[in-house]
Amino acid sequence: xxSIVSVSNLVKTYASGFQALKDVSLEIEEGEILAxxxxxxxxxxxxxxxxxxxxxxxxxxxxxxxxxxxxxxxQTRSMIGLVPQELTTDQFETVWNTVSFSRxxxxxxxxxxxxxxxxxxxxxYDKKDNMLRELSGGMKRxxxxxxxxxxxxxxxxxxxPTAGVDVNLRKDMWEVVKRLREKGVTIILTTHYxxxxxxxxxxxxxxxxxxxxxIEEKKELMKKLGRKQLRIELVExxxxxxxxxxxxxxxxxxxxxxxxYEYDVSGERTGITTLLTALAEAGIRLKDLSTRQSSLExxxxxxxxARA
Length: 308
Ligand SMILES: Nc1ncnc2c1ncn2[C@@H]1O[C@H](COP(=O)(O)OP(=O)(O)OP(=O)(O)O)[C@@H](O)[C@H]1O
Prior knowledge:
There is one protein chain. By secondary structure, the chain is α/β, with parallel strands linked by helices. The chain has 10 helices and 14 strands. A hairpin with a 4-residue loop joins strand 12 and strand 13 (about 260-265). Helix 3 (about 95-105) runs parallel beside helix 5 (about 135-150). Adenosine-5'-triphosphate binds near residues 16, 38, 40, 43 and 45.
């Protein structure tokens, strides 16, 4: 698939001298949902702000739809929708005017039919004549999304869209995201909620300390992580593994009180039944069994923890 956003060797050093991005390169494919994961201060917002033309890069190059985000700012900005973390619009303006005005700011002709559809999709239509200051926090978040969609962008950035929102809004938001994606809109979201990335993204990127640590298809990542552990608690501790069990992927933990068996969930057979039979034959008595599957969170913690 062709790239819609191309980031090469991007560097950002703030006026304070702090280097928020260190040589970031990244290709975002047209039509994909990419989740960017990273702890606080990793550089996610800085990266998005540069692509959206809000922050100037210190080095490197970013293109959107083949246009340079600094030189061809107007063209790139009209292709992009950004849902920022906070609303910074005139609180005395109505919902309808705010969203319509936003479309004009991106150089698009008025289209009341489109604005009406966006407001309806976000359950905002009955609030169209209300002033922003009369809305609840959740409704204001909906207005942010409506603004970002007002000019029918090809690329949509959502910066921590679900931080502090309730279940209903979260559901509506993912519905909107899925529908947009069906229409071919490229979606990039930053999130702290790893389950969210696991649920919705096609690809996952992990960013920390201003660097991309990993970027991969979610399916591939989950396949690699598709390992499971069976923990077998023993009645009597073992100091060494009996010879009869040497053919199994087993390790001893908890001073001999537990055996850990690692197996591949994608394989046809787990080998658990034969292992349990072999344990019984070796006269090893079991107290309890439990299983644990590695998740996206495990790899995230491992990556970020190791290089923080
Ligand atoms: N205008 C600025 N001047 C100086 N430093 C800044 C500026 N904006 C951001 N930073 C610093 O750059 C680093 C990256 O910030 P950024 O907002 O991109 O991180 P983030 O990954 O979006 O974090 P969060 O998850 O907390 O939103 C942080 O250490 C932040 O303090």
